[in-house]
Amino acid sequence: QGQLVESGGGLVQAGGSLRLACEAFGRINNAHTIGWFRQTPGKERDLGDFVAGITWRSGRQLYADSVKGRFTVSKDTANSTVYLQMNSLKPEDTAVYYCYLDPTSGSRIWGQGTQVTVSS
User: Fold this and answer.
1) Do the beta carbons of residue 62 and residue 53 sit within 8 Å?
2) 10-residue averages of pLDDT along the chain (120 residues)
3) DSSP 81-115
4) Which of 21, 31, 33, 95 could form a disulfide with 38 if both were Cys (CB 3.0 to 4.6 A apart)?
5) Cα(58)–Cα(80) distance, rounded to whole angstroms?
6) Which of 69, 51, 118 is nearest to 91 (CA)?
7) Cα–Cα distance, 101 to 112 (Å, whole number)
8) Cα–Cα distance measured from residue 43 to residue 29, given in angstroms and rounded to the nearest whole number
9) Given this model, what pLDDT does residue 2 score?
10) In sequence order, which residues have a C-beta less than 8 Å from that of residue 19 and are 6 or more positions away?
11) 36 and 21 Cβ atoms separated by less than 8 Å
């Protein structure tokens, strides 16, 4: 079983930027897609909103419409890390952001979550 460790959340004013990192340990060679969901109060994590993802081998990027043009997902293969660069942040981006890994076979793995708060 792999493990995902997230970092980089925090408090920022509207219009500001943050970068989240998700480092994968174990089973990374079995990864198909790594990315991010976000959970707002009242929603369960598994019902949260997809934010962005990247396929581990080809580097194809996927984005929710709400973040296109503002967020960029990237990967550092050598360090088994996926980044989410978030620019032009809005108060509605406030959420707990969870990193996920979908393997080529088996169940999804989740990180522990990191809080992002955008003040108006």
Assistant:
1) yes
2) 90 98 86 94 75 96 97 95 97 95 91 96
3) EEEEEE-S--GGG-EEEEEEEEESSS--EE---EE
4) 95
5) 14
6) 118
7) 12
8) 31
9) 80
10) 8, 83, 84, 85, 86
11) no
Nearest to 33 by CA among 111, 102, 105: 102
Q: Give the number of residues written for the chain.
A: 120
Looking only at the bridges linking them, the beta strands covering 10-13 and 49-55 are unpaired
Q: Which two tokens stand for residue 74?
A: 């990237």
Dihedral pair phi/psi, residue 111, rounded to 5°: -85, -175
Beta bridge partners of 81: 23, 76
